[in-house]
Design goal:
Chain A: InterPro entries: 4Fe4S_Fe-S-bd, 4Fe4S_Fe_S_CS, Cyt_c_oxidase_cbb3_FixG, Electron_Trans/Redox, FixG_C, Helical_ferredxn, Ig-like_fold. The complex is a heterodimer of chains A (481) and B (304). Chain A is α+β, with helices and mostly antiparallel strands. Chain A is 41% helix and 20% strand. In chain A, the strands form 5 sheets. In chain A, strands 10, 11, 12, 14 and 16 form a 5-stranded antiparallel β-sheet that branches. In chain A, strands 15-13-17-18 form a 4-stranded antiparallel β-sheet, with no helix packed on it. In chain B, the strands form 2 sheets. Chain B has a two-stranded antiparallel ribbon. Chain B has a two-stranded antiparallel ribbon with strand order 5-6. By secondary structure, chain B is mainly alpha-helical. Chain B is elongated and about 115 Å long. Classes of the chains: A alpha+beta (481), B mainly alpha (304).
């Protein structure tokens, strides 16, 4: 349909882009070698916070496996024996619901923190961030700061470059190996792990130490921001939790533009300049290599280092701080004050996340505190339905798995209720060792003819003799026709 | 091993697979570069709705190499392992071969465990707690399906924990039972016995053998009919372990208790089978199981 038939269908014009002329076009690759980022080190409030979190998380990670609880490791996830030891608790595979609870709580915490203050997790607590931070610190100590590192990489292999790179690699590898070792130490007793590996006993242990060590080395030494940009799923969906009242690292263009260098003596406002002096320090310190002055970008992990860099410059220029600051989209657009923004933090989404999170935490705590240190599975014999035994009794056979979740030997008594005249034929005292489970054969008998044919509900009651632990489990009793 | 009568489908499947992989590679090669207008602002020159432009943000190159690695891996895998139609791969790997190798390996690992019991008589093995723990697990995995977890059986499946044996309770007989299996056959006897009334009378006589409640008049009438049964069960009805004929004088009723159950048995007969385990278990395992089963009825007090 052309416009020459004089019929205007609607006022809308579809823009037509002419096919590019072949002389104007060039072929570009849709893949490109990644440009290496050389973040400049910086001091300031956010940098200090990052270091504090590096310290806290890593102190926890590296030290916890070394603590003992009585005769055993305080935190040990023994996959071989299928027991998780957590302080005073012995968790069985049947306790996986607690892991589910923990994961849901973690997810909700992520939602809550993200809704309030953006990618806090990414910038401060994520292992990827933390190890990158550690590895960069080593790099910085050995090779020098940004410009020195760039010069080193640009130039050929001099003696200085060789020893610096070798030193850096050596320290990196030691730290990565130790990280892998510690990680494996959560799953096998860490105090024996070193000796086992040296004696070449645990091939699998060695494999996982090397595997996690290498993953740490590769991710924190080389992949760094690539992990956040191209691999991490959490980074992708956190933007879905942002809204216009989420605190994000933001540059204030109204104040900053027109950016440009200036002489200190002149009144820059008269020249039509804003507060940004275009020193590009905010770009140099950025660990993901973006320019925050272009607005919020998906790469930004909200670490706030550009805020530190800009504030230092503003101080030197004797301009007010906060040209780049933690603010909200609404805050920047509507020029809200701090208190106005903080009032908007308590919006329905945040309150809801918070309420559910608190409820779940409480539920998990109460359920862990009030947990019975005993578990019972009842398995009816599948083949033998029921039988008549001497004395005119009907008999069903069951196997009970009795799981002792305490760390002392316990003896248990098995009873049954829920059927008229039901009797238990089993050992009166069943001993189960510490943190062990046992299969016990139990037979239930009722007088012949005391129950109609079909399936009846019956309840097993297993109670410990030494403490109050008691478990009631359902099963069925079959009466033949 | 081709699953098809002709090898057309094998070639067809292999062709589709290879063409698919090559197509992936070609797609990667032809889409890796793109003609764009040379612009200074890092856009591709495409404009939508008047102001929406497309940025040119290339993917990292290592991403592309990952894709290439998957292709190389796929080809190498198809070369080494079965996957291309009926081609069985350079390594000649099969699931069955893998399974057999694992069984051999497992048995090698178990060998030293069982070595201890090889020279022991079964009666001694039955006293060994380690052997009994092994026996218990073997029993639960291989025997409990029919004989029950407590080995007391159920209708049609003998109780192994009492002193009543169909084929004999000596260790070597138990071993043979497990190793070779047993078949218990009783032919339908109704023709040899006579009419329905005769069968009923005979059933009452059989009940009387074990002192179970019965009609003494009918039992007396049925007594002469028992001659037919005596060929296997013996004149006294005490059974015959050489034939696996049950003892009729105790109150153990493998195939059901009462007049009707006995009448049905005489009318229809029975063919009962215990499957041979020699294919499933090693001789060492069968020996330990023999000791376990023998121990069930030969314990001072079965603390099971």
């Amino acid at each position: 349909m052309t416009s020459e038939d004089g019929q205007k269908s609607s006022g809308r014009v579809i823009p037509i882009t002419p096919v590019p002329d072949s002389e104007q076009t060039e072929s570009v690759s849709l893949y490109e070698a990644q440009k290496k980022i050389y973040p400049r080190s910086i001091n300031g409030m956010f940098a200090r916070w990052r270091w504090l979190l590096v310290f806290l998380t890593q102190a926890f990670f590296y030290l916890v496996p070394w603590f003992q609880w009585g005769e055993r490791q305080m935190v040990l996830f023994d996959l071989g024996a299928r027991r998780f030891y957590l302080f005073g608790l012995v968790l069985y595979p049947q306790d996986f619901i607690y892991l589910t609870g923990l994961l849901i709580i973690s997810a909700l915490s992520l939602f809550l923190f993200t809704a309030v203050a953006g990618r806090l997790w990414c910038g401060f607590a994520c292992p990827q961030t933390v190890y990158t931070e550690l590895f960069m610190w080593i790099e910085h100590k050995v090779e020098g700061d940004r410009s020195a590192r760039m010069r080193l990489d640009r130039n050929g292999w001099t003696f200085e470059k060789i020893w610096k790179k070798a030193t850096k690699q050596a320290i990196w590898i030691v730290l990565a190996a130790w990280t892998g070792f510690t990680f494996v130490g959560y799953f096998v007793p860490i105090r024996e792990l070193g000796a086992e590996i040296l004696a070449l006993h645990g091939t699998w242990q060695l494999f996982w130490v090397v595997f996690y060590g290498f993953a740490t080395y590769g991710n924190a030494g080389y992949m760094r921001e690539q992990v956040c940009k191209y691999m991490c799923p959490y980074a992708r969906f956190q933007s879905a939790m942002f809204d216009k009242d989420t605190l994000i690292v933001s540059y204030d263009p109204a104040r900053g533009e027109q950016r440009g260098p200036r002489a200190k003596k002149l009144d820059y406002k008269a020249q039509g300049l804003g507060d940004c002096i275009d020193c590009s320090l905010c770009v140099q310190v950025c660990p993901v290599g973006i320019d925050i002055r272009n607005g919020l970008q998906y790469e930004c992990i909200g670490c706030g280092l550009c805020i530190d860099a800009c504030n230092n410059v503003m101080d030197k220029m004797q301009y007010p701080r906060g040209l780049i600051r933690l603010s909200t989209q609404n805050g920047i657009a509507q020029k809200l004050s701090q208190s106005q923004m903080f009032r908007r933090v308590l919006r329905p989404r945040v309150l809801l996340y918070g309420a559910v999170l608190v409820a779940l935490c409480l539920a998990l705590m109460f359920s862990l505190v009030g947990r019975t240190p005993l578990k019972v599975d009842v398995v009816r014999d599948r083949a033998a339905l029921s039988r008549i035994v001497a004395g005119g009794k009907l008999e069903n056979v069951y196997r009970l798995q009795i799981m002792n979740a305490t760390e002392q030997t316990r003896s248990y008594h098995i009873g049954a209720t829920g059927l008229d005249g039901v009797e238990v034929v089993a050992d009166p005292r069943i001993e189960v060792g510490p943190a062990e489970s046992r299969w016990v054969l139990v037979r239930l008998q009722i007088p012949y003819g005391s129950a109609a044919s079909g399936s009846h509900k019956v309840l097993f009651e297993v109670s410990a003799q030494e403490d109050q632990a008691k478990v009631i489990e359902k099963s069925v009793f079959l009466v033949p026709r | 091993m081709s699953d098809f009568t002709s090898n057309f489908w094998s070639i067809y499947v292999a062709g589709v697979t290879v063409i698919g992989i090559v197509a992936c590679l070609l797609l990667l090669v032809f889409t890796a570069k793109k003609k764009v207008e040379s612009t200074s602002d890092n856009t591709t020159g495409h404009v939508w709705d008047g102001d929406l432009t497309e940025m040119n943000n290339p993917m990292p190159r290592w991403w592309m190499w990952l894709f290439v690695i998957t292709i190389v891996f796929g080809l190498a895998y198809l070369f080494a392992f079965p996957g291309l139609g009926a081609y069985s791969g350079k390594l000649n790997w099969t699931q069955l071969g893998e399974y057999d190798a694992e069984v051999v390996k497992a048995n090698q690992q178990l060998q030293p465990l069982y070595a201890r019991f090889e020279s022991m008589p079964v009666e001694e093995v039955a006293k060994d707690p380690a052997a009994m723990a092994i026996g218990d697990r073997l029993f639960m995995n291989n025997c409990a399906q029919c004989h029950g977890s407590d080995a007391r059986g159920s209708k049609g499946f003998p109780n192994l924990s009492d002193a009543d044996w169909l084929h004999g309770g000596a260790p070597e007989q138990i071993y043979k039972t497990i190793h070779d299996g047993r078949v218990g056959v009783m032919a339908p006897m109704v023709a040899a016995v006579g009419g329905a009334e005769d069968v009923r009378n005979l059933a009452h006589y059989v009940l009387s053998l074990s002192g179970s409640p019965n009609d003494s008049i009918k039992a007396a009438l049925g007594k002469e009919k028992f001659a037919v049964c005596a060929a296997c069960h013996g004149m006294d009805g005490k059974g015959n372990q050489a034939l696996g004929a049950p003892n009729l004088t105790d109150d153990i009723w493998l195939h059901g208790y009462g007049e009707d159950a006995i009448v049905a048995m005489i009318n229809k007969g029975k063919q009962n089978e215990m499957p041979a385990q020699a294919q499933k278990l090693t001789n060492d395992q069968i020996k330990v199981l023999t000791a376990y089963v023998w121990g069930l009825s030969n314990k001072p007090a079965a603390a099971h």
